[in-house]
Amino acid sequence: MRFSFIYSPKRCPICDVQLLHRGRVCHSCKKKIRISRLSRENRCEVCFFPRIGKGCGYCASRNIFFDSHRSLYPLNRSWHSVLNRWKFENDRYLHQLFLPALFRLAAREKKSFDRIGYIASGKSGWKNRPYQPCRDIGRIFAEKQGLPCTADLRKKKNTKQSQKSYSDRFLDIHDSLEAAGSILPAKSYLLIEDVFTTGATANEAARILKKSGVFSVTVWSMLHREDLDSCRVRPGDGIGYDSGYGLTGKEESGKY
Ligand SMILES: [Zn+2]
Ligand SMILES: [Zn+2]
To answer: What's the pTM?
Structure first.
């Protein structure tokens, strides 16, 4: 057990106010969390980006390999601080904040899965923390369903995406993930992800899974970083992916 776990004062992971119990969120942040939950209203059934007019610009402008994506919360300022503490400051217990909304989503979506998985961190992830953040969530959820939770995919390399051109970044997406072993075929696969930014990582994961015999891929992300540009159709954006790289570039710098 880390010493900081024993001696650090108990504080709300969002607003930093002092609390009686560690691992809790203060009353006012709890309320804010509840109201910030994302709803399906006016969002695309497949990618979950907000619809702009008729149809979905995001889905129309690229090849989507996942069958459906949902996110629990928007990556706003409060969730930013939770995310940084969860992923970079060893506050492993913060995964618990997502569980109630995750189970609510499962009840609402009424989907049955035969496999649950997550993307294992690359080397830089292990430098930041001695645990896999999404594994904790995936395992708790999978256990309730009586299913296994496995890291079928892992991040492959950590190149600084910010220094790359648009086309280099696009090409790198194909080379950013790899199967962590032999992927067993599945009818319905649920991928648990921490942050959905451009969807490029989730899409590449789904592509690899499907190539390995998975029939349908659902992606559930804890947080959605919404950049309105990514749901608009851009001229010349027919390659199949957007310019973003999901998370790995951010992990390089250590903070979101
Ligand atoms: Zn608070
Ligand atoms: Zn869409």
So the answer is: 0.81
